[in-house]
Amino acid sequence: MDDLHIALWQTPYVAASPEALQRLETAGAQAHAQGADLIVSPEMSLTGYAIGAEAIADQAEPADGPLAQAVAAIAQRLGIGIVYGYPEHNPTGKPFNAVQAVGPDGTRLMNYRKTHLYGELDRDQFSPGDTAPAVFGWQGWRLGLLICYDVEFPEAVRLLALQGADAVLVPTANMTGFEEVPRLLVPARACENRLFIAYANACGAEGALHYGGLSTVAGPDGQIMSVSDTQSSLCCVRLDQPSLAQARVGSPLNARRSDLYGPLTGSHAGQA
Length: 272
Fold this sequence. Notes:
This protein is an alpha/beta fold.
């Protein structure tokens, strides 16, 4: 498979979706000019995150709704894949905190709903996702989606690894005071599962919340390949197949007790 060039867009939230879409298009154009195949934006990037349950419900829409159509049009105009966060309508309860991947031809590739809700703010605004994360194929890569708090649970990333994921893309809204997540947990998850993790955080303030930035790409050997500061940024990183293959030589997943913990499937199987 060819290398995958991804861009992490670290940005403050804005109050209105039209402005968020305009800023996404500007960032996408800059990322495409730098050679990126895909841009990853923060959690709930099109509406804001800490905006209250009523506002979330008012702006929630289906996975193929107006926001999805607008993002698909941007992707087609720019010729770049886009991963973005939005509130997904739930006919039986509070909206889902969702993320969607769209290809450069506007095709919807994968939709994922956050399964681990963090704190009262999350639980007040959202319903937890009811479906485990799954891998999808794109440009020869096997990719998975998680959202923020999800990546702090080892089993979430491991489940994607067992499906053969090569990289996990994580839109997030991590606040200041939790720097151990990008600095320690993200590299650990990448290393223990022998895959890339791209963690795209927000920055700046939103009401009483202050987001910590530090958007990070960690390699399958656990090394941090790129980390942003706490300000707005657009960082492009190349994920390469040779690094992935080398890290998987002697992977601890090969010694995993499948008789106790379930069968090993996907691209790790049979490697030594």
